[in-house]
TrEMBL record, chain B:
<feature type="transmembrane region" description="Helical">
    <location>
        <begin position="463"/>
        <end position="489"/>
    </location>
</feature>
<feature type="domain" description="DUF112">
    <location>
        <begin position="20"/>
        <end position="440"/>
    </location>
</feature>
<keyword id="KW-1133">Transmembrane helix</keyword>
<feature type="transmembrane region" description="Helical">
    <location>
        <begin position="392"/>
        <end position="408"/>
    </location>
</feature>
<keyword id="KW-0472">Membrane</keyword>
<feature type="transmembrane region" description="Helical">
    <location>
        <begin position="248"/>
        <end position="268"/>
    </location>
</feature>
<dbReference type="Pfam" id="PF01970">
    <property type="entry name" value="TctA"/>
</dbReference>
<feature type="transmembrane region" description="Helical">
    <location>
        <begin position="323"/>
        <end position="344"/>
    </location>
</feature>
<protein>
    <submittedName>
        <fullName>Tripartite tricarboxylate transporter permease</fullName>
    </submittedName>
</protein>
<dbReference type="InterPro" id="IPR002823">
    <property type="entry name" value="DUF112_TM"/>
</dbReference>
<feature type="transmembrane region" description="Helical">
    <location>
        <begin position="45"/>
        <end position="71"/>
    </location>
</feature>
<feature type="transmembrane region" description="Helical">
    <location>
        <begin position="149"/>
        <end position="165"/>
    </location>
</feature>
<feature type="transmembrane region" description="Helical">
    <location>
        <begin position="415"/>
        <end position="443"/>
    </location>
</feature>
<feature type="transmembrane region" description="Helical">
    <location>
        <begin position="111"/>
        <end position="137"/>
    </location>
</feature>
<keyword id="KW-0812">Transmembrane</keyword>
<feature type="transmembrane region" description="Helical">
    <location>
        <begin position="20"/>
        <end position="39"/>
    </location>
</feature>
<feature type="transmembrane region" description="Helical">
    <location>
        <begin position="172"/>
        <end position="188"/>
    </location>
</feature>
Length: 328, 506
């Protein structure tokens, strides 16, 4: 809590200091926001909701146009930004942990995280592990103890492909709990969280791994027991009753952050402008409103801080993926 | 009884002005598409999916639009069967048998009215069946684990050819092509890329919707160019209608039987509407025997297949909504649409997206009434539109396809891909290879693979899990029956079908 508060106060102070002085860069005309997926998904939402606030609060002169560029889990948009939009100062691209996961595992062939500028994150959805209401397991520690005895005793269903973020969440938790033989932990990949939950509720697979927002409805209806949320502290609102993994002695944190990168080759002034602008958006009442409505949890990093975070996350995922033999 | 409460909420959604408007629009476009020879319900829905994306419609509105198109196409198919002796779509084939002779006798308007009423009754019965059966099946569907799903997909493939399928080998080839296309992209179980050749656009696999629009809409255009079918074909003129209440009462028992039979054949995965209309026609002929003059313009011969194919249309929605397994080509297209809207069909859809499910079911009921109203007094308009030469219609269809596909992903790559699929579709049709199994293969293949691998993962490699539950064993038995029956019964049925057709043509 304290770390978060100091961070917030700091950014607030920076914002006030910055807003007093005029910027060397200000966007002129139309600003684009690329959502690297079809309309309706998380990235599309990030672009549209942030874009709306940017123009409402006059950070951009006109409107922010959301461009949907689906393909390769963000790879098509990444390639486009690197090769066709270098130096474009009027462009934001939505990103999330899915982007860093793919970068870490080399799934954007020939590209890496240093080819764009990571400017900030504006919220997160935290990983969670749940079981059906009739499950014998009541805490995450019990599940991990079972895995220590036999890594195949509990099988996990999730909405990402093998090696994707939902799979990694289980491994992050298992690793923190000192489970050996990680590659033997069974993960069943479904097309999306909903399908995976169906199988867990139906009693065919023992546990579900996904984001807390996917589970909330099933937690309230009583179909699922949420064993742990992979956040630093307990979440606000109705989710406060869900214990964190940390409380259970398993130091695993898995935020699926929502944020942006911009093309490389932009001026320092433009980069600074977008960084501080995202800080102001995060502090705004309008954005707090969006977060409450959409179930986004507090999570904010920007500038150099965010850049370091992204690179550390990629490093962690890479190590983990190597450990379990997903990549060489 | 709980269902009735949900249904009322569904009516609340379906009766919102915007949704009602799209239901009317869908019913109108559907009837038109169904009436045009060659463009069946699967094509109709495929062509209009991009429209729903372009307009940025909400999921429930998109689905209401598309199910209305679906229902409308089922009504529309009869128009050209009766007036031109060319079925507007495959399920309307049986309607030609008595519909065209009726029209020749100067009773075209009566045939239209009777078939519309029969369609209404068939659809109504099946929608009631859907309301009763779907929630029950949905709660039951939770017992489907990977092994049961795998058996169910095998069943769907086994019955794919259906009893009326022409050439089982070609059906099998088509399904195999679909399976091959589906292997492109990331493999969920291992995270490996398959057949992507480092082309970023292929990493997420090939989008069903691009394949569907290409295979159906673009190949249709190519056929049109080839045939130079610039002007329409001559058709029988409409007469003034003199339909009495007695005539309507006379077809009621036939329509009820047809609706029930249609519903049952629709629920079976893979069988679909053609089977529904075929079975109801043959059964009706059996029951009435010499009392009727089937093949020479008996009104009951028009009512039976129409009630059957409309019943099957709603019936096919049951497995699609509850299990995520399409019962026909068109529901496969609707399933692709649901998936791209991030909605997972299956048991939890009823609890998590109940508003959408019941909104769509209510829209089916409302759409049915709209269609009945549209198809009796306004049938003249469709007849007029049917005489609009395709040289004006097809370019519009093509434009909608291009704009729509581009608006989904803003990628020119997808457009090239769509055209490639169109060319492929053209050659496949030239070779008499049916297109619907290609789509079903694309859609069902990855699911079948995934469930087999999941079953193996859950049992730690023990194959007996596949026959580990009574449900799975039952499904395997039906699958085997589905595979063997067409081989035994198929030739007999087909011979009768062509004999009946030849008799009317003569």
């Amino acid at each position: 809590m304290t770390r978060h508060m100091t961070l917030k106060l700091l950014t607030a102070a920076v914002v006030t200091a910055m807003s007093a002085q005029a910027f060397a860069f200000e966007p002129k005309g139309k600003v684009d926001c690329i959502a690297p997926a079809d309309p309706g998904g998380g990235w599309d939402f990030t672009c549209r909701s942030v874009g709306k606030i940017l123009s409402e609060l006059d950070f951009v002169p006109g409107n922010v146009q959301t461009i949907n560029m689906a393909g390769a889990g963000g790879g098509v948009a990444f390639a486009h930004t690197v090769s066709k939009r270098a130096g474009d100062e009027q462009l934001l691209v939505a990103a999330s942990t899915a982007t860093t996961t793919r970068l870490a595992q080399g799934q954007f062939p020939g590209m890496n995280q240093d080819q764009v500028e990571w400017i900030g994150a504006l919220g997160a959805d935290y990983g969670a592990i749940a079981v059906s209401k009739d499950s014998p397991y009541n805490t995450l520690s019990e599940v991990m103890d079972a895995l220590k005895k036999d890594p195949k005793s509990v099988k996990f269903a999730g909405g990402s492909a093998a090696g994707g973020w939902d799979h990694l969440k289980v491994l992050i938790a298992a690793q923190a709990a000192d489970v050996e033989n990680l590659p033997k932990v069974s993960y069943l990949s479904y097309n999306n969280g909903g399908e995976a939950i169906t199988q867990v509720v139906g009693g065919h697979v023992q546990a579900f791994t996904g984001d807390i927002s996917e589970i909330q409805g099933f937690m309230e209806s009583g179909d699922l027991k949420v064993l742990a949320v992979l956040s630093e502290e307990r979440l606000p609102g109705k989710l406060a009753e869900v214990p964190t993994a940390r409380e259970q002695g398993i130091d695993a944190v898995a935020p699926n952050w929502r944020g942006f990168y911009i093309p490389a080759g932009v001026s320092d002034d433009a980069e600074q402008y977008w960084t501080t602008t995202l800080d102001s958006v995060y502090e705004s009442e309008e954005w707090k409103d969006v977060m409450t409505k959409s179930g986004l949890m507090p999570f904010h990093k920007s500038g150099a801080d965010f850049d370091a975070f992204v690179k550390a996350q990629i490093q962690d995922i890479q190590t983990l993926s190597k450990d379990i033999g997903l990549i060489r | 009884m709980e269902s009735l409460g949900f249904l009322m909420q569904g009516f609340g959604i379906a009766l919102q002005p915007e949704n009602l408007m799209f239901a009317v629009l869908g019913a109108f476009l559907g009837t038109l598409i169904g009436a045009l020879p060659g463009l069946g319900p699967a094509n109709g829905v495929a062509i209009l999916i991009p429209l729903a994306f372009t307009l940025g419609l909400s999921p429930e509105t998109s689905l209401i639009l598309l199910t209305s198109v679906y229902a409308g196409a089922m009504y529309g198919g009869r128009i050209s069967s009766i007036l031109l002796n060319i079925p507007g779509d495959e399920p309307a084939m049986m309607t030609c048998l008595d519909g065209y002779p009726m029209a020749q006798k100067g009773k075209a308007a009566e045939a239209m009215a009777i078939s519309a009423i029969a369609s209404f009754i068939g659809s109504l019965i099946a929608t009631i069946g859907l309301i009763v059966m779907a929630p029950w099946l949905a709660s039951f569907a939770l017992t489907f684990g990977p092994a049961e799903y795998f058996a169910l997909f095998v069943l769907a493939f086994a019955t794919l050819g259906g009893i009326t399928g022409k050439n089982p080998v070609k059906t099998l080839m088509a399904a195999a092509i679909g399976l091959m296309i589906a292997t492109v992209g990331i493999d969920g179980s291992t995270g490996t890329q398959r057949y992507t050749f480092d082309v970023l656009e292929l990493f997420e696999g090939i989008d069903f919707i691009i394949a569907i629009v290409g295979l159906f809409a673009i190949s249709e255009l190519l056929f049109f160019i080839e045939q130079h079918a610039g002007e329409g074909k001559p058709m029988i003129a409409m007469n003034k209608m003199t339909l009495k209440l007695k005539d309507i009462v006379a077809i009621l028992p036939t329509s009820f039987r047809g609706g029930v039979l249609g519903f049952i054949s629709g629920v079976l995965p893979g069988a679909g509407a053609s089977l529904g209309s075929f079975i109801s026609y043959t059964l009706e002929k059996k029951i009435l025997g010499k009392k009727g003059n089937f093949g020479e313009g008996d009104p009951r011969g028009v009512a039976a297949p129409e009630a059957g194919n409309n019943g099957a249309a709603s019936g096919a929605l049951v497995p699609m909504l509850t299990l995520g397994v399409p019962g026909s080509g068109t529901t496969a297209v609707l399933l692709a649409m649901l998936i791209s809207l991030n909605i997972t069909p299956g048991p939890l859809m009823f609890t998590q997206h109940g508003d959408i499910v019941w909104g769509v079911i209510a829209a089916l009921l409302i759409g049915n009434v709209i269609l009945l109203l549209m198809n009796i007094p306004m049938v003249g308009i469709f007849v007029k539109l049917l005489s609009v030469p395709p040289k004006y219609l097809l370019p519009v269809v093509t434009m909608v396809a291009f704009v729509g596909i581009y608006s989904i992903s803003h990628s020119t790559f997808d457009l090239y891909f769509m055209v490639a699929f169109g060319v492929a579709g053209y050659f496949l049709r030239k070779l008499d290879i049916p297109l619907v199994p290609v789509i079903l293969g694309m859609l069902l293949g990855p699911e079948m693979e995934k469930n087999l691998r999941h079953a193996m993962q859950l049992s730690d490699g023990d194959w007996t899990i596949l026959i580990g539950s009574p449900l799975a064993v039952t499904l395997w038995c039906i699958a085997i029956a589905g595979l063997l029956l067409p081989v035994i019964v198929g030739p007999i049925l087909r011979r009768r079908m062509s004999a009946a057709k030849a008799a009317t043509d003569a």
